Fold each of these.
Amino acid sequence: MAHYKIAWLPGDGIGKDVLEAARIVLDKIQLDAEYIPGDIGWEFWCKEGDAFPPRTIELLKNVDAALFGAITSKPVKAAATELSPGLQNRGLTYRSPIVRMRQLFDLYVCLRPCKAYPGNGLNFKEGIDLVVFRENTEDLYAGVEFSPVPPDLAQVLKTLAKPFAPFAALPADQYAVSCKINTRAGSERIARAAFEFARKFKRKKVTIIHKANVVRATDGLFLEEAKNVAKEFSEIQVDDANIDAMTMWLLKNPFNYDVLVAPNLYGDIISDLCAQMVGGLGFGCSGNIGAKLAVFEPTHGSAPKYAGQYKVNPIATILAVKMMLDGLGETGKAASLERAVAEVIKEGKVRTYDMGGANTTLEMAKAIAAKL
Ligand SMILES: NC(=O)c1ccc[n+]([C@@H]2O[C@H](COP(=O)([O-])OP(=O)(O)OC[C@H]3O[C@@H](n4cnc5c(N)ncnc54)[C@H](O)[C@@H]3O)[C@@H](O)[C@H]2O)c1
């Protein structure tokens, strides 16, 4: 029996191409693992009315980790029209399987390392090495949303919140409400994860990202909890910044930053910015980590226009494999894989289209495997 069970979730579009590439390096590195395929994505929404079927949820309860490609998501109304005829008008509502997975398995850490590998022509600046900790289950992604707004909710808001007055007279279908919900426990644990990472890897500084001057209740709570956690890590510098200022400072002085921690939405925004500074979507990798399960993925989506063409860059997914190896405690294999990626980038002989070359997804994976 293999030592590890890994759920293998290619999903849609280029998710299939990049996971095929990931398998080339995993086979070369000889991880003692069984890869168990799982159904997820658009095909299952259309055929079964569920993009994240119960059998895949069961699979994820019984694995050591999961590698995920990408899924296609569409707005609720467009999704409903693509259901197979027998499933139409049954009140089925599309929800992104990756967002559901994060909530169902309490994958509260979204870890996104953003490192500029030397010689990558796409680097914004050489030497950037940032790590983003994004809270992954709460905030504006809690899924508590109203459109149209029920009269009961409008009445309560009118009674409890003075600033609601300008909205109170609007018809229910002329506005919408999405609730930003942040808990003390959720804010504390993501901040703790960031500071513990900083301590373990001898990082100098943690920056707390928020907008507490305007979004006072929720971001105020997040900032307060994160600052409390910081007191236990006196050897690590701490500062905080508003999300808007942060985007500017990161571009201006990226070397002033090290580990960044943020609530869900700001973390999403900042991690795309950081990924772009180190080469863009072809290089952005991500770990969704909880107490019992961790799911690793490239940050990019399913890029339908390139699906099945083996054109896109698999490095993001191969770096997600490196994160998975670290997560499994296979740190030696993880380090070798990262060295192999860095060497191929530095040599610049094998390059996918985004790097200005014409090599295929699988050629890039084979070049990396050849260095192992
Ligand atoms: N986690 C996920 O699965 C995830 C994340 C984002 C978007 N999506 C979904 O993916 C679908 C397409 O979304 P999109 O087009 O906005 O974003 P996308 O990330 O799929 O692609 C945008 C563009 O980025 C480039 N790109 C993406 N990955 C690349 C790679 N590995 N190498 C080189 N270039 C790459 C391509 O030019 C592509 O057209 C949508 O349905 C969206 O909802 C899924």
Note: The CA atoms of residues 79 and 94 lie 6 Å apart.
Amino acid sequence: MTEMTRRTFLAASSGSLVIAAFGSRGTAAPADRPWYATMRRCGQLNLNERDPLTLDVASWIDYWSSLKLDALLLNGGGIVAFYPTDVPYHHRSEFLGSRDLFGELASATKARGMRLVARMDCNYAYEDALKAHPEWFERNRDGSPRPHNESTWLYKTCMFGPYFTAQMAAIYREINKRYPVDGFFTNGWPSTGDLTVCYCENCQKVYGAIGGAPPERVDASDAGYRKYYDAYMNRVLDVWAGWQKVVTEARADSVYVGNLGGGIRTVKNVKRLGETAHWFNADHQGRAGDTAIWDCAQQGRVAQAVMRGRTITNVTGAYSNSRPTWRHVAKAPAETTMWMAQTTASGMVPWFHWLGGAPEDSRWESVGRDFFSWLAAHESHFRNQRSIADVAVLYPQRTIAFYRSGAGPHGLHGNERVQTTDYLQGLYYALLDGRVFFDFVHEDDLRPDVLRRYRVLLIPNAAYLSDDQCRRVREYVAAGGSLLATFETSRYSEWGDPRPDFALGDLFGVSAGGDVVGPTGNSYMRIEAPHPVMAGLEGTTLLPGPEQRLPIRTASGAGPASVPLTVVPYYPAFPPEMVFPRAPKTDEPAAVFRELGPSRVVYFAGDIDRTFWRSGNPDLARLMQNTVAWLRGARRAPVTLEGDGIVESFAWETERGYALHVLNYTNPNMTRGFITKTYAIGPQKAQLEIASGRRIASVRALRSGRSLPFSQQGAIVTVEVPAVTDYEVIALT
Ligand SMILES: [Zn+2]
């Protein structure tokens, strides 16, 4: 058994043993699980260079201890050393004086029973290092170094050079030797975002090996970019594994933690990162602009898809990381709390973060303390063993990273670049609105043992899929699973090479009949025949059409039962005199519905997911929700939640029993931050199918702190919570 499968196995099978021996605090862990596997609360004070002049260690450690933290992150070094380092060119804080601030903090942290993780920064160094070690630094095409855009006296270091392998390793070893640290975290690196392109001598060697410098923008159509993507990922994973090795030289249970995150927008391969990471930290601290509130829960779903029960933390910025950002004032408390609630509900561990050792704003302190105290009081209910959901959403990572729609070169439509996350985002919103419980499954993880427990697999325009991924989807349907796919799903290889036809055309029952049409508004879908998916859409024969569609042909003999929706093509929307259909009725299918033995397969030729996200038209959401219900068939969902309001829900089997998490997003600031007030929603009725033979003895609402009446008939437990303010956890034991 590999180490990873062994740990996953233990996490899934030995829960009852763990709780018997190690009850309330996560700092004690059995020898066969690392300490961070049981961590539930994490905090960080992010020091600045001047803090050694004034930092009051005792009062800070009092504060963090009051949050009942399992682990505290404090600045060790990298850009600035907060201890008297002897590593050459490791810049000591110029305000350090005779102080060993990290040493003082380390002793105080350990004395209060908290684990200590040294927060490092590997991304920049000072000019004296640049002069002595020019090979450590990134270069522009003309050979010039790359100063930081604000702090211009710092220069960007290169991941391919010896700064990462030699200098950072020397710093880790020095800290490990002097201080009782339990792990190391690097700020900013490697991230899940775009690759960077550097022209230093080390990178030139990389380019020599792959046949030239890659394009500086994401361009998976370029052969050089493809090779660079793999070389870049390999280097990231080599550095990561190397640092894990270095930090465990002195202490076997230490850990290196990289900086990931980015929600559903990822370019780097998170599946591969998850295989190397012992602990996945999502640096996804808050939202700005018109980002939807569920951005944090989405981060949780992405991370769960690659970590499968292993440790995931998500940083919550207590400061106002909006647009613009204010580092030294607090975020709206209701927003901060909802971020930590999403972190917890999605099965991640909250990591509460403040910047600067001398705050003039103290309003954030009670926000973290209140939430963490509540977490600590109910800790066993947050030890999840598995998600209870029978719907999987394929996380289409390569499409999100690389997709350029067939509608134009570079995915440009007029002046508008296609947002490759819009397809997933539209499906996601429809699932929340329809109160569907679901998990993400990464496209590189479509193994039968992963997919087996899902009745339905939903694929929101995974245009870029490999032959092997398509084979896995086909096997899933052959084994009895049901499938929804939209738009260009499987039309391209994993790198975006167009295929002559859909790789999954046999499943969809269609072949491609031309290039993408659109984007255009004012096209329609015509209801040709009654079908269960039209429930709630009575009173019209026209439905809003997708902005983009692929012309398709069905296999001969496909009748109205499998093609209940046809395309009414675009016609002008202006001026009103011109607004009439030029082709009111066609036989071009807008969607195909098939029954293949026990499986059902639905394919939508248009981007109804993305069009829903852009338009908000509820007919499109209804169509997707009804489709999910039709795909599930007569079999009941293992968990349901009924009531008014927009909520996001997670259901977990826990060490104690079951926990149903309900996040109330019903708020005028749902899609534009910040939430400043919460608005309670009324009764929510849940039904949960539990393990057969199990009796539930008690149901409690953990946020409102009350017992809930419930009934159990066979394996079905029914419970109603009278109201949900911001967040509620219904715990069944
Ligand atoms: Zn370089």
Note: The longest helix spans residues 223-247.
